[in-house]
């Protein structure tokens, strides 16, 4: 179990329209954006969690209306980042079985690309995230039936983010019900305080149902599978008047659950994988439900969990950075502040674990629960920029653990060092598809390690990540090829750039990736110098003779091998990733005048409808901020005439087919950190916000970007 640590709250930056100001009233900022629901809203279930484990509830405070929420919005589930399942592999499928060969630069290399055959399907779908039990109200006794939305009225649900506590009050079946819930910061425990005359009248109980898994055939938001009761086992290890201990197994997947109460319980088991819990008497039910992958979780005390959560969140909000827009006359300021506060809460309960998060975090399953390493920067960089580097550091432990796998991938492809896998699960095995040719994930571990060093510039930090940085740099350097005709090093082919529309077999020299290669190799060289080592001659040769960023007619294009970005409207959809060379990155090889013309062209003529994701808007805002265009930065950050830039009452950024898309939240926080905290060389405070008086920005605790 990883202990959560927090930095002391020492304001590094405190500005208000350029002047020093009193510290931000952080509790007031958070409190004014605590979500409150007064009706059933399937797009906005609210969650409590600890970054490794989370519980998402409907308006009843439990998961009482799962079908309604799944059908019309966001699933209500219980999830843990450590809970995985893998189907048997009697055929012994391996990645080489699905290779497709690419020939370039005198070499033929196989990449696992074929998903249309059984081996490809199995390797893509396994391992997959495994859901924990569904916990909701159920009718009992005579006349019992399924609870439906019409049974729930007079909704008053409030999430207190300062305490990590969800309070829900409704009329259920015409009777009052109140539920308070929270999650322990130190164990995967849900604590519940429930009160209702329905309990005293034996009309309802709390139903804990253990699913077989997710229904196969859907890699986004799959429903829970209840159709195979004989395919898994829920074994009662202990049952007493106050405790229930259950071990759940499916093939080699396993977890244990402990339900505990200080008061006597009535526990029944109406089906093999279903338990109904009620108080023996009275209208109050206090429970803790704890989970563990290994062993059996200890019974927890309800009051203790609520107290620990309250202390944990108080430390969280008082640590790191904060921002306050109160007093601004721009009508968009309040909405941006709301998104910022909710995104901090959501990323803290969903991301920053030792197992990198999927794009839907712990709310539901997307891409079989696997994580995309190109998203790790958007998921975790903001933690360090907001002065909470321990979250970023935990995620980087996965890269350290799987470094041997990345080395093996590099060796298989004739490369040195480490070649990072794109879509993968806990063990690091790559998933087949177009994924293995994506390359913009490669420099991320170096960049994140550098952010951690800037937050804690010690030899200990250098030693902790030196192997990760150097092996990644070796892999990057060996991915470059010498072009004798042009007397330069080039990147690709084959590769798949961040703007995912170009032919992978012929793609060469994408603008963003070239700049990121230069930046990654330069950071690695600086790490050598900090450690008293000379610069690596091979890295330096490649860095200094790297191809120039491709441009045409005074604007950057996506890729040199197909420079039609501004000639062909079909090349102006998907991510305008070339902007990241000066935005997320500090601009290695960038001409600022050319980049400004490029930004203006994107804002004027890009296809904002076809495939713009939630992280594109903050990404573009970062470029505008670095180009001293704060009006444009704010405008695109809050752009409302395109898809995928809305935020629900719960704070989630839904994207097409994805009710939860956490890269949107993470990128928003990264952009605001840049706009408020600045970057190396920024000439004024809060440089990403307008100076016309419409924005009053009070910021403290931010770390600058390079």
UniProtKB/TrEMBL annotation:
Signal peptide, first to last residue: 1-21
Alphabetic keyword roster: Signal
Keyword Magnesium appears in the UniProt entry: no
Signal found in the keyword field: yes
GO biological process: carbohydrate metabolic process
Domain of life: Bacteria
Protein name: Glycoside hydrolase family 65
Organism listed in the record: Pseudoduganella umbonata
């Amino acid at each position: 179990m990883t202990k959560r640590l927090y930095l002391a709250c020492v304001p590094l930056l405190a500005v208000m329209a350029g002047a020093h100001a009193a510290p931000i009233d952080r509790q007031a900022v958070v409190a004014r954006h605590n979500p409150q629901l007064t009706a059933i809203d399937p797009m906005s279930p609210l969650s409590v969690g600890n970054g490794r484990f989370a519980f998402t509830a409907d308006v009843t405070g439990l998961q009482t209306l799962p079908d309604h929420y799944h059908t019309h919005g966001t699933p209500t589930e219980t999830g843990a980042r450590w809970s995985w399942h893998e189907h048997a592999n009697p055929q012994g499928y391996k990645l080489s079985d699905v290779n497709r060969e690419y020939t370039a630069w005198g070499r033929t290399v196989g990449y696992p690309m074929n998903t249309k055959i059984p081996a490809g399907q199995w390797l893509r779908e396994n391992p997959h995230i495994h859901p924990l039990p569904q916990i909701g109200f159920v009718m009992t006794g005579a006349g019992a039936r399924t609870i439906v939305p019409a049974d729930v009225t007079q909704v008053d649900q409030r999430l207190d983010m300062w305490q990590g506590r969800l309070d829900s009050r409704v009329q259920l079946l015409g009777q009052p019900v109140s539920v308070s819930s929270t999650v322990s910061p130190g164990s995967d425990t849900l604590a519940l305080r429930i009160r209702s005359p329905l309990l005293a009248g034996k009309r309802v109980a709390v139903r804990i149902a253990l699913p077989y898994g997710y229904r196969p055939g859907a890699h986004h938001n799959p429903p829970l599978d209840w159709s195979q009761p004989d395919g898994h086992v829920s074994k009662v290890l202990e049952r007493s008047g106050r405790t229930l201990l259950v071990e759940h197994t499916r093939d080699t997947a396993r977890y244990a659950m402990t339900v505990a109460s200080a008061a006597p319980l009535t526990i029944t088991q109406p089906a093999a994988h279903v338990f109904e819990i009620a108080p023996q008497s009275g209208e109050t039910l206090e429970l803790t439900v704890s989970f563990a992958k290994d062993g059996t979780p200890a019974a927890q005390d309800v009051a203790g969990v609520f107290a620990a959560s309250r202390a944990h969140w108080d430390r969280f909000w008082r640590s790191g950075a904060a921002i306050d827009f109160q007093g601004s006359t721009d009508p968009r300021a309040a909405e941006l502040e709301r998104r910022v506060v909710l995104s901090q809460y959501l990323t803290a309960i969903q991301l920053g674990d030792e197992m990198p998060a999927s794009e839907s975090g712990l709310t539901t399953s997307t891409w079989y629960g696997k994580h995309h390493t190109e998203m790790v920067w958007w998921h975790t960089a903001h933690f360090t920029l907001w002065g909470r580097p321990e979250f970023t550091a935990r995620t980087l432990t996965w890269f350290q653990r799987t470094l041997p796998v990345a080395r093996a991938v590099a060796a298989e492809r004739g490369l040195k060092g480490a070649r990072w896998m794109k879509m993968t699960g806990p063990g690091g095995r790559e998933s087949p598809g177009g994924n293995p040719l994506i390359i913009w994930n490669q420099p991320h571990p170096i960049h994140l390690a550098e952010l951690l060093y800037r937050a804690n510039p010690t030899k200990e930090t250098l030693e902790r990540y030196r192997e990760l940085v150097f092996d990644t740099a070796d892999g990057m350097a060996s991915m470059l090829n010498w072009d004798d005709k042009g007397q330069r090093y080039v990147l690709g082919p084959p590769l798949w750039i961040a703007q995912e529309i170009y032919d992978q077999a012929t793609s060469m020299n994408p603008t963003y990736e070239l700049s990121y290669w230069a930046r990654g190799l330069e950071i690695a060289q600086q790490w050598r110098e900090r450690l008293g080592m000379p610069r690596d001659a091979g890295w330096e040769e490649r860095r200094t003779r790297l191809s120039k960023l491709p441009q045409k007619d005074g604007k950057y294009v996506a890729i040199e091998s197909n420079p039609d970005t501004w000639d062909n409207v079909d090349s102006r959809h998907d991510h305008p990733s070339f902007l990241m060379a000066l935005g997320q990155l500090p601009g290695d090889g960038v001409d600022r005048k050319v980049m400004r013309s490029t930004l203006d062209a994107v804002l004027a003529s890009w296809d904002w409808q076809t495939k713009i994701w939630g992280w594109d808007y903050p990404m573009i805002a970062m470029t505008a901020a670095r180009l001293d265009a704060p009006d444009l930065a704010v405008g695109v950050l809050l752009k409302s005439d395109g898809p995928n830039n809305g935020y629900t009452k719960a704070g989630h950024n839904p994207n097409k087919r994805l009710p939860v898309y956490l890269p949107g939240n993470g990128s928003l926080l990264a952009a605001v950190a840049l706009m408020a905290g600045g970057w190396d060389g920024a000439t004024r405070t809060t440089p990403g916000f307008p100076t016309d008086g419409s924005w009053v920005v009070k910021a403290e605790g931010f770390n600058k970007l390079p």
